[in-house]
Amino acid sequence: MTMILLKKISNFFLPRRCVVCNSILHEGETVICSQCLLHDSMSGLFSDSSDNVMVRSVIGSGKIVRGNAMFEFHPRGLQARMIYKMKYQGRSDIAVNMGRHAAKALLPSGFFEDVDVIVPIPITRMRRFQRGYNQSEMLARGISEITAIPVDTTSVVRHRFLRSQTRLSLEQRQKNVAKAFHLVSSAALTGKHVLVVDDIFTTGATLGACLREISQNTNGVRLSILTLGLTKS
C-alpha cells in the first residue's frame, strides 16, 4: 500500500511523459501514450512482409523470408525524439517496450512464425561502453518477452566501425560496413530461421552486411529482418 501511495505521489510531482509527444502518460501507458501508438502508425508498415522495399533492398544477402518496420522514420519527426533518447540518453527501457509493442502488433500476422532465434545487430565494444547497452539487443529482448523466441548475442560480433552512417551515400555506407561483422560460431544458427533486429533501416547497408556474414558462413540458414523505423527517400 505504501509503495502504491509513493508511486502516485511521485507521478503527481514528476509525471511520466510520452517519449514521442511529451504528453503525460495515463495509468496503464508505458513510455509511449496510446494516442501515439494508434495515430503514428506504429503497427507495421507492410501488409506483405515477404515482398516489400526492405526485403528487396537486401536481396543477394541470403535467403530472405520476410521483413518489416514498425513506422516510417523522419529525422525531424516526433519519433526521432524517441530514437534519440533510446540511443543517446540511457533510455534502454524505450527499446524494450517498443520490442514488446512490435511483437504484439505483428504476432497476429504470423510474422514470427517458425523463427528460431533473434540476432540483434551488434555494436562495437567501444560503442557499447559509451552507451551502456546495445539498443538493438534491448529491442530484441522486448520481442523475446512476448514471443518466447531466444535472443543470441554471441554468435555475431561487430569488430569494425569506421564512422557514423548518418551522412553517407549508399556506396559509402556499403564500404563503411564491409567486413564489419564476424560470425564467431555458425553452430547455433545452422539450419535455423534467424530474425535479425535493428533500430532504423535506411539503405539496408548495415543489415545487408550482417545478413551476408551469416548466410555465407552458415548452412541452411533462413533470414528475416525487423526494425523500428524505416527511412524513406
Explain what this protein looks like in three dimensions:
The chain is globular, with a radius of gyration of 18 Å. The longest helix is centred in the middle third of the chain and has 15 residues, at about 90-105. The N and C termini lie far apart (about 50 Å). It has 9 helices and 6 strands; from the N terminus they run H-H-H-E-H-H-E-H-H-E-H-E-E-H-E. The strands form 2 sheets. It has a 4-stranded parallel β-sheet, sandwiched between helices. Strands 3-4 form a two-stranded antiparallel sheet. Helix 9 links the parallel strand 5 (about 195-200) and strand 6. The mean pLDDT is about 85. The protein has about 230 residues and is of the alpha/beta class.
Q: Spatial order of the strands in the main sheet?
A: 1-6-5-2
Find the structural class using helix and strand composition.
Answer: alpha/beta
Cα-based radius of gyration, to the nearest Å: 18 Å
Regarding quaternary structure, what we see is: single chain
Average pLDDT taken over every residue: 87
Count of helices? 9
Shape: globular
**In this structure, how is the largest beta sheet organized?**
4 strands, parallel
Number of strands: 6
- Distance between the ends: 52 Å
Helix content: 25-40%
The helix-strand sequence is HHHEHHEHHEHEEHE
The stretches of 5 or more residues where confidence is low (pLDDT under 50) are: none
What percent strand?
15-25%
Short synopsis of the structure:
With 233 residues, this protein is an alpha/beta fold.
Output the keywords:
alpha/beta; 4-stranded parallel beta sheet
